[in-house]
Each structure stands twice: as C-alpha cells, then as structure tokens.
Amino acid sequence: MQFDAELLLLAMAPVFLACIGWEAWHLRRTRPGARLYSWRDTLCNAALALMQQAADKLAWLAILPVYAFFYDHYRVHIWQAGWLSFALLFVAQDLLYYVFHRCSHRVRWLWAAHVVHHSSERMNFSTAFRQSLMYPVAGMWLFWIPLAVLGFPPKQIVAIVLINLGFQFFVHTQAIGKIGGKFAWIEYVFNTPSIHRVHHARNDRYIDRNYAGVLVIWDRLFGSYVDEDLREPPVYGIVEPLHTYNPLRATFHEWASMARDFASARSVPDKLRALFAPPAWAADYHARRMAASTAHTTLNDNENNNKAALSARRRPWKIL
C-alpha cells in the first residue's frame, strides 16, 4: 500500500486547527472558570511544533540513508505492497513506539527531549503540537531500525511514524470523557483521551503510565495501564515545573539541567545516572542538593550568630 503520509498530514492541518478552535470555544462555554486554554501556552505550543517540523525535515535527510542501509543489507523479508503488509507495519511500529515512549520516561537522555511534550500544565488539542526539535539528537529514530530489518522500505517507515503521531493529536483533549456503554470495548484496544489524560498527569497514581500510541493493548500486556479515576482528576505538568512560555527554554531546560548535574556529580556512577537514570533520580538529586545547601547555609548563619554573640560578650562597650 503506497501513500504520501506527509501530504496526508498536510491535508489534515485544517482539521487539526478546526479541532483546536472548536475545543477552545466548547470549553470556554462549558467550563468557563477552568481556563483550559491560554494564548501564551497555545502560541508556545505552535512555536515548538514549527521548530520540531523544521528539525525533522533536516533529520530525515540523514536518517533515511541509515534505514536504507539496514533495508538493503539486513532485511529478512520483502513485503508485497497491500493491506496485509500495511497492517503488519502498523502493528510493529506501534509496538516499537510503546517501547520508545516507555524508555523516554525511564531514561533521562530520552526524557530530555520528551519532557517538552509534558511540560505544559494544560491539556488540550494544542498540547499535541508541543514537541521537541531534539528528538533526533536523543535517538528516537533508532527505535525504527527494526522495521527496516523486517523488510519495510525507508519511506514507508517514515510514513507510518507520521500516521501514528497524527492519530495521537486526537487524544489530547479534556472535552471527551471516558467511553462507556456499548462502545466501552474501544478503551480495551485503542488509545483514547481518557487513557492519554492519565499519561500526562503527574499524580502519584498516574505518573509514568499509559504509554500507548494508537493501541493500548501494549499497556495492558506489559502492566503499565491505569484507568482514569473520576474521583482523582489528573494534575498536568512535570514534577519540577517549568514556569515559562519561552519555546527555547522549554526545549533546552532539561538538557541544561542534565549538563549541570553531570558536572556537579562527584562519582562516575552518579555522572552516568545524571545522563541515563530515570528522571525521578534527577528530582531526588536536586532535592538532596537543595537540602544540603540549606543545611550548610543554616550552619553558617548559626556560626556567624555565635561569633557575633561571643564578640559582644568580650567587648561589652560595643553594645552601649
């Protein structure tokens, strides 16, 4: 099955924009006090999307020859174009996306790129545009090499990746609740807004769950699935909040933090953890450093106060 995914997504652009417009209008009318949209947040998301698209255009020029090398020299099968090969490619890429996505939450080097997508404290259709231009540097493209080995041509690999990401636009919303009734089966097979809201939450119950791209079966198979609990609404954003709408800071803040932690770590194991440990290690490391700094400051203040008191006792005339 041959198609041009880039043209398909370009044709979908008006649909994406219409969805954002409808959702902003609908949420303002039905939940006026929630302020689920913000001009500054939405414009930041749009800027990040444009930056990421430009970087991807350049990155694919370098990455396609890599896929072609594995396809030409190591492929195990040649697939005839058709619905069967498309279905196999779709399922295989979605599984690899799950692996990539889960690794992106468990390996800080990958998280440094992926954190951009999670750093907004709002959840709406425009959040889907919040992407990082650093994905090629982090190594996202490495996860699709097995598709070339399986025998899928490089352009088809790019196409299926884009289609998968295009689908995910539609799960970034609070305007659609849990799917129940006779359609409840959908949430046992496919990613949905309810499932993905959990993924974007920083609540202890929800954090690092529901990594699905299109199919949620991988989360259910590998134990990372959690239902959205209506009694515990998701709280969006990251554990160490960003507090900026600057797209450059949103893109590079975690890389800068990682570099500082690598430089300040005193042991080789901690230097490696600064780069490759789960992001929770960094949050704990920052908390420990802050506590140590606070304790050091308090100790110095106490010492200075004691010295001042001793000096005053030795020179009582200074008090007069």
UniProtKB/TrEMBL annotation:
This protein's record includes keyword Transmembrane: yes
Any one Gene Ontology cellular component term annotated for this protein: endomembrane system
Any one of the GO BP annotations: membrane lipid metabolic process
Topology versus the membrane: Multi-pass membrane protein
Compartment list: Endomembrane system
Transmembrane segments: 6-25, 82-100, 132-151
PANTHER family, alphabetized: ALKYLGLYCEROL MONOOXYGENASE, STEROL DESATURASE-RELATED PROTEIN
GO MF entries: glyceryl-ether monooxygenase activity; iron ion binding
Highest taxon of source: Bacteria
UniProt main location, coarse: membrane
Protein name: Fatty acid hydroxylase
Pfam families: FA_hydroxylase
Keyword terms: Lipid metabolism, Membrane, Oxidoreductase, Transmembrane, Transmembrane helix
UniProt KW Electron transport keyword: no
Residues covered by the Fatty acid hydroxylase domain: 86-224
